[in-house]
Amino acid sequence: HFALIPLQLVAGFIKSPLSQKRLTQDSVELYCEAIGNPIPEIQWWFEGNEPNETYAQLWDGARQDRVKINATYNLHSTSTIYIANLTGDDSGTYECRASNDPDRNHLSKSPKVKWIRSQANVFVIERPDIQTQFTSTHGKLVLSCNLTEPHSAIDGHEWKYGDKILQTDTESSSVTTYEIEGKKEEHSGIYQCIFKTSPEIKGEINISVVPQVVAYKKSEHGNEGDTGVLTCKNPSFPPVSSWTWSRNGEQSIINGSGRYIIKSSGNKTELRILKLNIEEDTGDYQCIAINVFGTGEATVNLRVRSRLAALWPFLGIVAEVLVLVTIIFIYEKRRKPDEVLDDDDGGSAPLKSNATNHKDKNVRQRNAN
Ligand SMILES: *[C@@H]1O[C@H](CO)[C@@H](O)[C@H](O)[C@H]1NC(C)=O
Ligand SMILES: *[C@@H]1O[C@H](CO)[C@@H](O)[C@H](O)[C@H]1NC(C)=O
Ligand SMILES: *[C@@H]1O[C@H](CO)[C@@H](O)[C@H](O)[C@H]1NC(C)=O
Ligand SMILES: *[C@@H]1O[C@H](CO)[C@@H](O)[C@H](O)[C@H]1NC(C)=O
Ligand SMILES: *[C@@H]1O[C@H](CO)[C@@H](O)[C@H](O)[C@H]1NC(C)=O
Ligand SMILES: *[C@@H]1O[C@H](CO)[C@@H](O)[C@H](O)[C@H]1NC(C)=O
Ligand SMILES: *[C@@H]1O[C@H](CO)[C@@H](O)[C@H](O)[C@H]1NC(C)=O
User: Fold this and answer.
1) What are the φ and ψ backbone dihedral angles of 12, each rounded to 5 degrees?
2) Which domains does the chain have, with CATH numbers?
3) How many angstroms separate the alpha carbon of residue 175 from the centre of ligand 4?
């Protein structure tokens, strides 16, 4: 016979915070996890590097709201302290304290109460200045980053475009360059240079161009009465802030007016023309994109065919089939005398079916036995 008696368990850590190095303006996250019964409470305390400083408790919203604490009390207790936009004054020792003593928050009883502690250091290093440069000459683009005040040893460099690593080396120079063949219009975007130091130092170079608009198809065909769909997109950086459409270079088409519907989403735009009309809708349409650097456009030519024109290929096939059928019919008619002769040989067919009938009977008899 068993009775479930809740065990009183002293708090213990299962995960302790880890020391970290960061640059000013970065953020840092420390994590702590404890078990015990009842579930322990977790607190965060901080001691700065000045000799006169003592431990002070940290709260959610402390340091002008740069401190966030997220705790969960569910089977275990977990707590994450997150400090944004670090400054040199955030350097110091961070302590995770856990206790499940029922008297833990009675200040008068405090000497007896046991809090277990786990510490991590956060080093905040002044963010060094990176001078970035971008030049475009003789069909070549040169991007360079210059770390003007190296802090720790440089173990190499890396160039990235989004998540893609473009170039990497293990040199210790404080200057790194990356070259691209081609025009800047073809290579716009956000490039990153990374100095492999501890912690890593990153610089950013933006290659910005006016929108490099392309038509999804340079010419579109539609049938009279159908819906015509014209599409343009902009793969370049920076993104488009607004799209407009116009016809034959005239004033811009208003969304929802007449038979027009415009749908634009970020780097793509679509013009739909309902119930296409040959006279009114055939022509050149311009999609115009605007970003902070200027304007770009592309032209789509729309051709509207009559319903009947759409039928012509089908009618052609029908006519071909008819001609073939007629030819075969005439040919077969002429062969008729031969076929009469063939019929004599065909006499074997009923014989064959008789034979199978016999076989069937045999089987049935055998089954009966
Ligand atoms: C510690 O000393 C510095 C000057 O050395 C002073 O600015 C700071 O306010 C002191 N901090 C505390 C907590 O007393
Ligand atoms: C707090 O932590 C929980 C569990 O880890 C997570 O689901 C939640 O999104 C966090 N909340 C914030 C504000 O970070
Ligand atoms: C970060 O802190 C600096 C001063 O330390 C301030 O000038 C800057 O605006 C802050 N940045 C953000 C994103 O809060
Ligand atoms: C890097 O910056 C330093 C300091 O501004 C300058 O003296 C040096 O010439 C720069 N190097 C390059 C390759 O631009
Ligand atoms: C590059 O572009 C991004 C996105 O528009 C922007 O947040 C960032 O500040 C730009 N960087 C520089 C160095 O101009
Ligand atoms: C358009 O932007 C989206 C994200 O907003 C991106 O995933 C997509 O690749 C972009 N398309 C082109 C053609 O650049
Ligand atoms: C045009 O109007 C339709 C509905 O009438 C709407 O769904 C669409 O978002 C509008 N497009 C723009 C670019 O405002």
Assistant:
1) -145, 150
2) 9-105+112-125 (2.60.40.10), 130-207 (2.60.40.10), 214-305 (2.60.40.10)
3) 8
